[in-house]
Write a structure and sequence with these properties.
With 103 residues, the chain is an all-alpha fold. It is built from two helices and no strands. The chain has helices at residues 2-73, 76-85. It is rod-shaped. It starts with a helix and ends in an 18-residue tail after the last helix. 0% of the residues are buried.
Length: 103
């Protein structure tokens, strides 16, 4: 009888160890799947950060260009160009050649 009880305890012990091993294995699989998802998110965030950094650089360049353009618009050369292009004004000693329409 003592032999049967010892055999049952040994069998129950093996069964318990097997169940614990299965649970640990399942936890390992779940953690690996979660880690894979987090790695994909991390890569997406890194890519987005690089994209945003390039946009920041473009906007900084654009801002510098606008500052240069603002300075340029305050010069007399700019005023002359606008007067010639938009208003058709010329200096008194300039000769204007116009193409005839229809030819």
């Amino acid at each position: 009888m003592a032999r049967k009880v010892a055999f049952r305890k040994k069998r129950q012990n093996r069964m318990g160890m097997f169940m614990v091993t299965i649970v640990v294995g399942m936890l390992f699989v779940v953690i690996m799947i979660s880690m894979s998802g987090l790695k994909k998110k991390q890569n997406a965030y890194i890519e987005r950060e690089e994209t945003l950094q390039s946009l920041i650089e473009q906007e900084k360049k654009r801002s510098e260009d606008l500052v240069e353009y603002e300075i340029y618009t305050k010069t007399s050369k700019y005023v002359e160009e606008v007067a010639k292009e938009r208003l058709g004004l010329v200096y008194g000693d300039e000769i204007i050649f116009e193409a005839e329409n229809g030819k």
